[in-house]
């Protein structure tokens, strides 16, 4: 299968789409919104502290230091924080109220988790 990159890609896309569909179903059941981020959004190489974007970030680099604010980052944790913040920003831009912890409804306004 690895020799046929096209087939491998189709199988990977189908698996990903199935995962996203299940996630959307679970989010709907829980009464929360599912936010999808742009795949080209530079979540790994953008400093979540100051927003500085590194020009290059090879995949093998797992930890890095921001050239602007000198914060030290674990690549995956930094990416997770950026994705969470992007989701919150997108939901707020859509006029939704976002709670910091779990998105439980506490008032008459619509609450969501990101
Ligand atoms: Zn920084």
Key features of this structure:
114 residues, mainly alpha, 2 domains, two-stranded antiparallel ribbon, two-stranded parallel ribbon, 2 helices, 4 strands, flat, binds zinc ion
Explain this structure.
With 114 residues, the chain is mainly alpha-helical. It folds into 2 domains: 1-30; 33-112, no CATH class. The protein is built from 2 helices and 4 strands, in the order H-E-E-H-E-E. The termini are far apart. The site of zinc ion has 8 residues, from loops.
Short description:
The chain is mainly alpha-helical and 114 residues long. It has two domains: 30 residues; 80 residues, no CATH class.
Radius of gyration equals: 17 Å
Number of DSSP helical runs: 2
> Approximately what portion of the residues adopt beta-strand conformation?
5-15%
Tell me the distance between the termini. 36 Å
Helix content: 25-40%
Note the run of SSEs as H and E: HEEHEE
Overall pLDDT: 84
The unreliable regions are 103-111
Shape estimate: flat
| Bound molecule kinds, no repeats | zinc ion
Main sheet attributes: strand count, strand direction, barrel closure: 2 strands, antiparallel
Strands, count: 4
Overall number of structural domains: 2
What class, by secondary structure content?
mainly alpha
Q: Give me the side-by-side strand order of the main sheet.
A: 1-2
